[in-house]
Amino acid sequence: MKSPRSSLFINLIIAGILLVVCAACDSTTPIDEPPPGEDPLVECPQQSLSTWEFVGLQADNIDRIKALAVHPSKPNVLYAGSSFNFSAGLEGKLFKSIDCGASWDTLRTGGSYLDIQFDPHDPATIYAVPYGILKSTDHGHTWTDISEGIGLDPERRVTSLVIDPAHPEVLYAGTSGFHGGSLYKSTDGGASWTVLDPENRRLSNGVISLAIDPSDTEVLYASTNFFGDLYKSTDGGQTWSILLQETNESIDLLVDPEASSVIYAAFGDRGVMKSVDTGSSWHAFNEGLPVEKKIRQIIKNPQTDALLLVNASPNGQGIYIREAGSPLWMRIGIDEHDHGYYYSDLMLADEGQRLYFGSDGLYRMRLE
Q1: φ and ψ at residue 214, rounded to 5 degrees
Q2: What is the pLDDT of residue 10?
Q3: Assuming Cys at both sites, which of 107, 174, 258, 307 could form a disulfide with 160, CB separation 3.0 to 4.6 Å?
Q4: What is the dihedral sign for C-alpha 305, 251, 349, 32?
């Protein structure tokens, strides 16, 4: 017969083995589980081709979704910002989803969001523009206002922001308002700012759109408010030359990422103009668009070379696409959804296969 001591010893060994085995069995952490604080990578569900799918953020306490950003390598991670609606008493809000839009967390309340951007080298760093500029370096968990040093007041706000893709610590922020605005530059990720062109006052009407040449990031394009003059700098914003005058607001600018000599300018009343010689000459680029053109945004799909734009004119509002080599713009995504508000952002994700659009909520479409 075994002694109590030997039985106890055997039982301890068995218990130890069971603890090890159970610890291994109980571990449900997948191999690709992200480190603490980072976002997971989740595969988004498939959807029908060329039709809008409602993603979320449509509620009585949310105004229009006007700012969007999709994680560059994790398409399940989405950020969205809503606008401020004074008459309805609705504050702007900043939202985040890590499950392709199935659920949303409210990160901040207050402001009216115009833009959300990821640092091109570090997706843990995000910038949001609700009035000034907010910055997060921990995947959106905490935010810091980095607007100190930018001339803001109740009549002037940040209306444009670009990040130098080669040197992401270099930021350009344009301000605009009833009394004009300026252009500011930071070389330390927003910790400090200097005003550009303080003497010539070329940009004193306010800067409502900015673009940077990805092949030479010393080259910048800026469009001003009110009269809508379009300027170019080849020295990082220190000096400026005028390209177009009194165009009545270029709402958005795009430097072709594949051919930096090609520039597109989207106008609030003239549609799209295109330059193939870095802005020296321009021609209309509106074939297929309604006669009444009110273009709010233009983007390019780097996978297909197709251009997409938002047209906000009442008689032709919607999303239009111009395929590579096509002579015409064609409207896409016509279905039972009457979004009724085409002033919001477009955003491509999943290597150009998904198109997001913000309106009275967030919508998603799968492209061919």
Answers
A1: -70, -20
A2: 38
A3: 174
A4: positive
Compare 165 and 205 and report the one with higher pLDDT: 165
- Both tokens assigned to 66: 């006007």
* Whole-number pLDDT of residue 3: 46
Average pLDDT of span 165-185:
93
CB 207 within 8 A of CB 181: yes
∠ Cα 44 45 46 (to 5°): 120
The string of pLDDT tens digits covering residues 86-106 is 888 889 999 999 999 999 999
Q: What is the DSSP string of 236-263?
A: TTSS-EEEE---S-EEEEEE-SS-TT-E
Reduced to 3 states, what is the DSSP secondary structure of residue 292?
coil
Q: What is the token pair recorded at 236?
A: 């990082």
pTM of the model: 0.87
The secondary structure element, H or E, covering residue 273 is: strand 271-275
First to last CA, the chain: 77
| Dihedrals phi, psi of 264, to nearest 5 degrees | -115, 140
- Taking the C-alpha atoms of residue 341 and residue 66, their distance in angstroms, rounded to an integer, is 10
Beta strands 307-311 and 318-322: pairing type? antiparallel
Long-range CB contacts for residues 321-329, cutoff 8 Å, separation at least 24? 322/288, 327/287, 327/288, 328/287, 328/288, 329/286, 329/287, 329/288, 329/289
**Closest listed residue to residue 169, CA positions, set 186, 184, 155:** 186
What is residue 46's predicted lDDT score, i.e. its pLDDT?
78
